[in-house]
Each structure stands twice: as C-alpha cells, then as structure tokens.
Amino acid sequence: MEALVKIGMADIFGLLIFILGLLTAVVGLYIYFKKEKKTHILLIGLGALFIMLAGLDNVVDFFRENLIDTWGPFMYFIGILLIFLSTEPWKALSD
User: Bigger pLDDT: 69 or 9?
Assistant: First the structure.
C-alpha cells in the first residue's frame, strides 16, 4: 500500500491509460490486418497507439525531462483525432 502512495495517482492513471491504449491498439490493428481492411478500424488502432504513448508519459520517469513529456498532450490530441476520424463524420454530412 505504501508503494501505491509513492507512485501517485497520476502514475496509476497513466498506467491504466497505457494498458487500455495498448489493448485497443492491438485488437484494432489485428482486426485490420487479419479480418477486415477497413480504414476506420486502422484509425482506431493508430489512435489508441497514440493514446497509449501519452499514457506512457505519466509512467516512465526516465522520459519525463525528454521528448515524451513534451509531446504527451499532443499525442492525446492526435489519438483522439484519429478515433474521431474513424467515425467518418463526412459521410453524415454528405447525406
């Protein structure tokens, strides 16, 4: 229990985001390459990959002063944008 207090809530939250992003990316990319070659599935996989990297930002102390800490919020933005694009909103506008 003391170890959890030392880690901090941000690190636990980042670890959960990392695990969720990793699972989503693996499943999305597996479905894309093995089952269906549809663009929205690829975008979900790639978006989850960026979110996974942003979650990693909160976990790994080694990179805190380096690239990942600077690019963490940007990776969240790219990941969410790719998942949004996977819904193909332009199809709804064209109807």
Answer: 9
